[in-house]
Amino acid sequence: MSAEHWGQKAGGGFLRHKTGLVVGGLIGLMFGGPFGLIFGGALGFFAERAIRKVKAIAPQQLFFRATFTAMGKIAKADGRVTESEIDFARSVMAQMKLNDAARTLAIQYFTEGKQPDLDLERVLRPLAIVLKSRFPVKLMFLELQLQAAMADGEMSAEELKVIETICHHLAFTPIEMRAVVERIRAAQAFNQHAGDWDRVSGQSQQSLLEEAYGVLGVSPSASDAEVKKAWRKLMSHHHPDKLVSKGLPEEMLQLAKEKTQEIQSAYDRIRKARDSQ
Q1: Which band of pLDDT confidence, cut at 50, 70 and 90, is reported for residue 195?
Q2: Predicted pLDDT at 61
Q3: Which 3 state secondary structure label does DSSP give 88?
Q4: What is the model's pLDDT at position 197?
Q5: Distance CA 212, CA 217 (A)
Q6: d(Cα 92, Cα 188) in Å, to the nearest integer?
Q7: Local structure of 58: helix, strand or coil
Q8: Which of 10, 23, 62, 146 could form a disulfide with 184 if both were Cys (CB 3.0 to 4.6 A apart)?
Q9: How far apart are CA 236 and CA 79, in angstroms?
Q10: Which residues contact 147 (CB under 8 A, 6 or more apart)?
Q11: Residue 15: closest CA among 59, 56, 52
Q12: CA angle (67, 69, 74) in 5-degree steps
């Protein structure tokens, strides 16, 4: 490579990453003088370059890998992978209608996740960068991992630690995490008892109704307007087309559709109960 060509290439790189170079240099100058200017500029340059490389990877690829790697990590968190946890991972693959190559890759990622030396943070960091301003996709990812953690009935303390790691990297607050956990617990019970509504009455029907409120994340004492607002917000967050446009793999479109059906079903049950009062 000639000196002229090298200079053009280096100049182009500085121009592409000038924001990191300038911001890092200014911060370094403030705290370290001339030496800080040089060090901070270099640090900012390489940081921005690393972020750009991550963003060049399709969000769908990052989501796919992180989904099954995290599932494997959760499944092995308490020392033993149960049949229920394996069945859940298989059901997600089946819903995605993966071809043989993609299914093999999903199994490979799940297996990697089970390894004791797997650094989950290394998998989550690039995902967090590309999903920084894509809350609905982050939410879908967290909900899937919570379903995996609860696949065998309840979430263990070790599984909860993995969920907390995921929430930390994806910038979910503890309050947001608890709200999603409660909604997923309610959704599992709601789906389990979906066919019981017309066969029970009295207190049993009231319990089923409370599960529907839990799916929407609202209290039974919420006003009609509050219930409707919660329903609209969740439907918006889980709209399949919106999720795909923001980075959800198209193979997971069916999962998003089923989630909106669940939310709609819970809302319909609540409306029917309130209309009959």
Answers
A1: low
A2: 84
A3: helix
A4: 65
A5: 9
A6: 15
A7: coil
A8: 146
A9: 37
A10: 88, 184, 188
A11: 52
A12: 95
